Amino acid sequence: MKPRIPTLIAAVAAAAAVLSLTACAPAGRAVGDTQDSMPAVAHDSVHITDATVGFVGSEDPAADKLAINAISDSGMNVFYASLAGQTSPKSDTTGKSTDDAANTTGGTAAESDSEPSVTVDSAAVTAQQAVDDFVARAVKLVVISGINVTDANSQGWDEALTNARNAGIPVALLNPVALPENDLLYAATLAVNDRDAEATPISDVALTIIRDEPHDRTIAVTTNTGN
């Protein structure tokens, strides 16, 4: 029996789509952390005005604002997903999260239909949805502020960060509380220290990661734009 042509075409198309996603993820390295040294031959890189950053906020909007302003003042475009109003896991007697689901630039928090004994980390859910939305927007870099990976939310974080990795979008973790186990899912961790004279401007670090230039895995950064 001759195979059906449409079926073969669909199968080939699906395989090509999978291969194209996989090709975006470097083998054995995080996206944005593939170079150990500068290339001998200069190459075209992303211009600062073309650099778009998806910033997933923390539960501290004031600290987020300092970092966002420092990045945007350099000329990069920043899209902000605020977690204002989102809190750590807790539930009421109905079993639903006591934190109202809030619309953000990056997405909408989902309500919980879980049993009363199960709590929902609404902040993590909102942040993970924001990552997915920024990937769909095809930003050049995702910055996640204050990520706190726990046993309860680790699967959601793995899925969101893997989505970014497969799309070839680097991720930087700003002032993380607890990191993902898989260090291939993020290019670097950034610690803000505005009193450190040796700290690198956060905008410079963001552009370095976007351009996939050599950098440390842990970087002290400053939000002081006067440096």
UniProtKB/TrEMBL annotation:
Composition bias type Low complexity, residue spans: 100-110
Signal peptide: 1-25
Keyword Signal belongs to the record: yes
The keyword Transferase is assigned to this record: no
Chain intervals with Polar residues compositional bias: 86-96
Region (Disordered), start-end ranges: 86-117
Keywords: Signal
Protein name, as recorded: Sugar ABC transporter substrate-binding protein
Organism: Bifidobacterium callitrichidarum
